[in-house]
Fold this sequence. Notes:
Blueprint: E1 2-6, H1 11-14, E2 22-31, H2 34-45, E3 58-60, H3 88-93, E4 98-101, H4 107-116, E5 119-122, H5 128-132, E6 135-142, E7 151-165, H6 172-183
Parallel strand pairs: 1-2, 2-3, 3-4, 4-5
Antiparallel strand pairs: 2-7, 5-7, 6-7
Pfam families: Fumerase_C
Protein name: Fe-S-containing hydro-lyase
Organism: Clostridium saudiense
Amino acid sequence: MIKSINTPLTKDITTGxxxxxxxxxxxxxxxxRDAAHGRLINLLNEGKELPINVKDEIIxxxxxxxxxxxxxxxxxxPTTSYRMDSYAPRLLDLGLKGMIGKGARNEEVIDAxxxxxxxxxxxxxxAGALISKxxxxxxxIAYDDLGAEAIRRLEVKDMPLVVIIDTEGNNLYExxxxxxxxxxx
Length: 185
């Protein structure tokens, strides 16, 4: 069964999601990769305000390609999430409720996901051109000098995702591996 959810991503929504759930996401999300994350954490360390309020928001780990004429955005496939692992717990503690990327997360991130009742969604790597068709608007809102890594506000409609890590720390990567290993016994 596919679940349709809308942003903002509140605790009421996240606690109803389970690792392995297929999602169609609609609403506002933000983009940021490691360079932007580093700047966000530097602002926090300096006691300054972030350019976005992360409470109940989702950050998509993506550096989209330039859009062609008539397009809202270029190819927008996920980047590897572990590059944001040193930054994610602090943002989760500020109220960030969702992250979209690909690949495994470290234990510190998983603990912060559980502590903050957040979720980690997986997007399909290599499907950036298809994912971009779900993006209905795109606006750079911070760090334009970072090019593809600038923070963007995206409006998405029915963006296909899978819950990889849920609010209880259940991890689809581990569940899948265990199911596979146990099926051969």
